[in-house]
Design goal:
The structure is a homodimer. Chain A has about 325 residues and is α+β, with helices and mostly antiparallel strands. Chain A has 2 domains: about 140 residues, 60s Ribosomal Protein L30, Chain: A; about 140 residues, Phosphoribosyl-aminoimidazole Synthetase, Chain A, domain 2 (Alpha-Beta Complex), CATH 3.90.650. In chain A, about 30% of the residues lie in helices and about 25% in strands. In chain A, helix 4 links the parallel strand 4 and strand 5. In chain A, helix 3 packs parallel to helix 4, helix 5 crosses helix 6 and helix 5 packs parallel to helix 9. Chain A is globular. The termini of chain A are far apart. At the A-B interface, helix 1, helix 2, strand 2, strand 3 and helix 3 of A face helix 1, strand 2, strand 3, helix 2 and strand 4 of B.
């Protein structure tokens, strides 16, 4: 009897899954030893940036909404954006995949392809990972970036600086609102939820332009600028009129009875970058949207047109 | 009305959990910027070793068996052993914790303490992590080691080399056999299952002694030496009489109707190190247990007293 090819992760087995992930990986700059041993070996750069980020099925993605390809792309995008947010260059990446044994191999193959595609876009090289069994698909991604200068932290914003953005805001949140109602269009919003478009390279650009503080917008602009305000001991005031609200956001807002600015100000998961610059130093492609100010009697906070915005500032995964 | 202190992870919230993990972390060598920003910043060492490892509740640990303290210790031990297995020195570590909102804060606090305790034992410094929501507690640990020389891979074993071990073998498997029957003793075996004793520093020791190949025994000695045999293109023959079978293993074997050598040869999770050395180069504290040979007509494989051992060679988490 001919041996049947496996169709699930369980059929493939743990070592087979690792082999699938390591097959055909080409050499990546600075990687002395790639996957296949106990650990990868990297030729040390001067300064490194490391971060880890986890996506859980049913919390951050749904397999009935996202393909494996989109899930792989999103996992790299969400983790990799943190390297950009320090002003560093993407370098290497490790993936830890936990999944049920009946995970279809086609899903796994597309996931792998999505990881490689986003690695290609961003400049990360996959150097390691592991797979293990779990009830829900869980993807933990660790990213390592190289930094040939000072990191851009959240703590350097100074009163008088301009707050500027690069990348989309609100698209992923609008896509989620559409999916939650059982629709798949507008497709541009849905696609943004399933796999965000990170402005790769913008972190380095901001650092070289002298950004004083920077953050990856993963929890919503108000929440993430709140981190900058507290870390820097400043206030931030945004100018609502400075934001360009894309037509797709207006469409979804109208269909769902929401204010499009809700998506823009509190929607996470687009992984735009928000940074502060001295006046006149905002680089090309960045949109000025506000000012850094001395904190008032209420301390560090984020306001829109001088007022604290009603309702939430963003989402907390445990909220 | 007085605000009640939170008692669960959900009550604490995502940012509260991060704060709990980053509070009071002292400076660690080479860490330019610790937790609290988008990513940590490390001052590059010459050569780095990176690896990631995941533990899932119900698969790798059970909360009714393991305390938070033990789970934290085991997470660091299991991941950190991969750095040792390359011959590198522990340096920094990132933890990604996914857990249900009703996770008790006491568990989380003990988990954190366990992480710090094993970091202290091993030399790792915690520099980052994230927390997110999931049905089952899932801990993904990424470890970064420093290497001031050549890595000891799985591929360098040469015919004539001695195979030697450092650390325990079979204790964790014996502990699992005890727990699976509803017992909590012998306590030494149970403790080994809940939090292994990694021979920290032995990886560097082996590298400096000229180890030609090395592997972390996480899947069972036969399975892991099988990786070495295939990567090196050699055969490995173990001498059953060379293994010291601890009394606790004999006790558990008798109580569970098993052969104690099953625990020793196929039990994983103790994170002993197995390495190959030129004759005469086996360093202090290591036990010679076999020889590397030219592969026979059956190719690279692992035998015991010249014969392939009946039954499994180790465990596959998806098997």
């Amino acid at each position: 009897m001919a041996e049947q090819a496996p169709t699930t992760l369980g059929g493939l087995g743990e070592f087979g899954a690792v082999a699938l992930f390591t097959k055909g990986l080409s050499a990546h700059p600075g990687v002395f030893l790639g996957p296949g041993d106990d650990a990868a070996v990297l030729e040390g750069a001067g300064r490194l940036v490391v971060s880890t980020d986890t996506m859980v099925e049913g919390v951050h993605f749904r397999r009935d909404w996202s393909t494996g390809l989109e899930t792989g792309r999103k996992a790299v995008a969400a983790a990799g954006a943190d390297v950009e947010a320090m002003g560093a260059d993407p370098w290497t990446l490790l993936i830890s995949l936990s999944a049920p044994a009946d995970l279809p191999l086609t899903w796994l193959r597309f996931f792998h392809q999505g990881v490689l595609e986003e690695c290609e876009r961003s400049g990360f090289g996959l150097v390691g990972g592991d797979t293990t069994r779990s009830r829900d698909v869980t993807v933990a991604v660790t990213v390592v970036g190289r930094l040939d200068g000072e990191p851009v932290t959240r703590a350097g914003a100074r009163p008088g600086d301009v707050v500027a953005l690069r990348g989309r805001l609100g698209w992923a949140a609008a896509g989620l609102a559409v999916l939650a109602r059982g629709f798949r269009s507008p497709r541009a919003a849905v696609a943004a939820q399933l796999a965000p478009e990170v402005p790769w390279g913008a972190g380095r650009q901001a650092r070289l332009a002298g950004a004083t503080a920077m953050v990856d917008v993963s929890d919503g602009l108000l929440a993430d600028l709140g981190h900058v305000a507290r870390a820097s001991g400043v206030a931030v005031d945004l100018d609502a009129g400075a934001f360009e609200v894309a037509p797709v956001l207006a469409t979804v807002a109208q269909a769902t009875g929401r204010d499009p600015m809700d998506f823009v100000l509190t929607g996470g998961e687009d992984h735009a970058l928000a940074a502060t610059f001295a006046t006149g130093a905002v680089p090309e492609g960045w949109t000025p949207v506000g000012r850094v100010q001395q904190p008032g009697p209420d301390g560090p906070r984020v306001t829109v047109d001088g007022a604290v915005r009603e309702g939430g500032q963003g989402h907390d995964h445990f909220g």
